[in-house]
């Protein structure tokens, strides 16, 4: 927005105030909101789209794996179908813990309309695995790495079994296990798409 505003101001000086005001009124209502969001968030927000084919048989997060810096915000946006973004954490329906121990788990609840979105800002370093409640068994999961790839999410899926305090935790379903991109691949490529 800064750049655009500067450009418009410069243009206004050249074209004259009245003309420029008219142009702004006509052209900017459509552009300004988008430009503002895009520019304001570019430095700090990573966007993940929640996707589906027309039948709902194929569902996925895009990208499925991302690397971000501590303090960056992740925003999930519905593109098609109905989804959630829900951290692998015992407080979310007794799912096994696959985010850093000190991190706060999130659950967006159902996002039902295209464009609906949910954000978290992740400050604690580690691997964060998450799923979509209605589509977990279909393998709709994603992985975020914040800074160093450490914590429970970096361990094998069954690592918790037999450890104290894990009674009743639900293991990651088979289709989801297959869907996760590896930690190594995310560290190498930073953004991983299916
Ligand atoms: Cu879903």
Question: How would you summarize this macromolecular structure in one to three sentences?
Answer:
27% of the residues lie in helices and 23% in strands. The chain contains four helices and nine strands; from the N terminus they run H-H-E-E-E-E-E-E-E-E-H-H-E. The strands form two sheets. Strands 5-7-8-3-9 form a five-stranded mixed sheet, with helices on one face.
Describe the model.
There is one protein chain. By secondary structure, this protein is α+β, with helices and mostly antiparallel strands. The chain has helices at 2-15, 17-42, 174-179, 183-189; strands spanning 45-52, 59-62, 65-68, 72-78, 86-87, 117-122, 126-131, 141-146, 191-192. It has two domains: 2-41; 44-192, Cupredoxins -  blue copper proteins (Immunoglobulin-like), CATH 2.60.40. Helix 1 (2-15) runs antiparallel to helix 2. The protein contains four helices and nine strands; from the N terminus they run H-H-E-E-E-E-E-E-E-E-H-H-E. Bound molecules: copper (II) ion. Residues 59, 83, 132, 134-135, 140 line the site of copper (II) ion.
């Amino acid at each position: 927005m800064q750049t655009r505003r500067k450009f418009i101001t410069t243009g206004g000086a050249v074209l004259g105030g009245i003309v420029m005001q008219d142009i702004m009124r006509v052209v900017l209502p459509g552009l300004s909101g988008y430009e503002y969001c895009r520019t304001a968030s570019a430095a700090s927000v990573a966007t993940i789209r929640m996707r589906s084919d027309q039948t709902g048989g194929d569902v996925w997060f895009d990208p499925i794996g991302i690397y971000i810096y501590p303090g960056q915000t992740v925003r999930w946006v519905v593109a098609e179908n109905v989804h959630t973004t829900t951290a692998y954490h015992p407080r979310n329906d007794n799912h096994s813990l696959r985010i850093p121990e000190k991190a706060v788990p999130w659950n967006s609840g159902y996002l039902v309309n295209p464009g609906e979105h949910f954000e978290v800002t992740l400050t604690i370093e580690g691997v964060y695995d998450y799923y979509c409640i209605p589509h977990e068994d279909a393998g709709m999961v994603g992985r975020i790495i914040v800074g160093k790839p450490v914590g429970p999410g970096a361990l094998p899926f069954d690592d918790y079994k037999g450890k104290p305090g894990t009674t009743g935790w639900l293991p990651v379903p088979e289709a989801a296990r297959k869907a996760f991109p590896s930690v190594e691949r995310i560290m190498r490529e930073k953004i991983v798409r299916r």
